[in-house]
Design brief:
alpha/beta, D-Maltodextrin-Binding Protein, domain 2, Alpha-Beta Plaits, six-stranded mixed sheet, 15 strands
């Protein structure tokens, strides 16, 4: 791949995630103003792949990404990155902490610093921005910003020429955001033994036990889920789909059989890729659920069927 997109602007944690990808530093990179615009660029062929945030350890799933992946022309995830999040409060040179009245940042960043703000700047008002980096660059541009301080990554404050009024202000010091690299569905990375598969599942109808019927497809095959979130389908009130991450690769026998079962019981299964885990953690395989176990069971069944006249 030679062309990469990312949810920008420059100086975001998303750019940091992209730059950790093997060949991204030597390739053409384009920033986009929103997750929707970033993924639209992949679908249109403007870029070969793009990095977007999908989940963080404080706020959970990033709804814009989950919704954009669940609908529209199919895309698949081909990799993921985990980035430790460190926020600073930055402002133009000469401003003091006591002078801060309005603070601009992205909503997910604000959720991760509310405790610090409440303790140190309880009278300050929050101003939503498209990204943490845009909060910094808009402020540095002068005149156009509606805030007088920004919460952003240290690199964004440095690039924008802002002074850091307070460092490492996150309420949870070990906060991590997960980013995914998304491409058109032209290939699936080979299994590594430490893989994850992402799906979106749609029920045939809303009924008692409906979600249990879907989850049973994983449980009976010893597949561990690493994420489960409900998202509105936008068709009607109370109509939800389920975004799921499971351990394993589509080539794993247990995962393949689970996908077959889901295809049978779901109204729709959106396959969003199988890819190496960023933490390299191997899958937990329950007893009697290895590939050899499934193959042996299949051979036994085929031998019985061969006896039929």
């Amino acid at each position: 791949m030679t062309r990469y997109g990312y949810f920008g602007p420059s100086g975001t944690f998303t750019e940091s995630a992209l730059l950790s990808w093997a060949d991204a530093q030597e390739s053409e990179r384009t920033a986009y103003a929103s997750v929707d615009a970033t993924l639209a660029a992949v679908r249109a062929g403007e870029v070969d792949a793009a990095m977007v945030p999908i989940e963080n350890s404080v706020e959970g799933g990033v709804s814009a990404t989950l919704d954009a992946l669940a609908s529209g022309t199919p895309l698949i995830v081909i990799g993921e990155r985990l980035v430790k999040i460190r926020f600073v409060l930055a402002a133009p040179a000469g401003m003091t902490l006591a002078q801060v009245r309005t603070i601009g940042t992205h909503s997910h960043a604000w959720a991760q610093v509310r405790g610090w703000i409440g303790a140190h700047l309880p009278e300050a008002s929050y101003v939503p921005t498209l990204s943490t980096a845009s909060a910094a660059f808009d402020l540095a541009g002068g005149g156009g910003a509606h805030h007088d301080a920004a919460i952003c990554a240290p690199v964004a404050a440095e690039q924008a020429g802002l002074a850091v009024l307070a460092d490492d202000i996150g309420d949870i010091k070990r906060a991590v955001t997960r980013f995914v690299l998304v491409s058109r569905p032209t290939h699936i990375p080979a299994p590594t033994g430490a893989d994850k598969t992402t799906l979106v599942l749609y029920q045939r109808q809303d009924q008692a036990g409906g979600l249990l019927r879907l989850l049973d497809q994983f449980a009976t095959r010893g597949i561990n889920m690493t994420r489960l979130e409900s998202r509105p389908t936008k068709h009607s009130m109370g109509d939800y789909c389920f975004s799921v991450d499971i351990e394993g690769h589509v080539l794993d026998e247990r995962v393949g059989e689970a996908l077959t079962g889901l295809k049978r019981v779901c109204a729709e299964v959106v396959y969003l890729g199988s890819y190496a885990r960023a933490d390299n953690a191997p899958a937990h395989i329950a007893p009697y659920n290895t590939d050899d176990d499934f193959r042996a069971a299949r051979r036994w069944l085929e031998a019985l069927r061969d006896l039929v006249d």
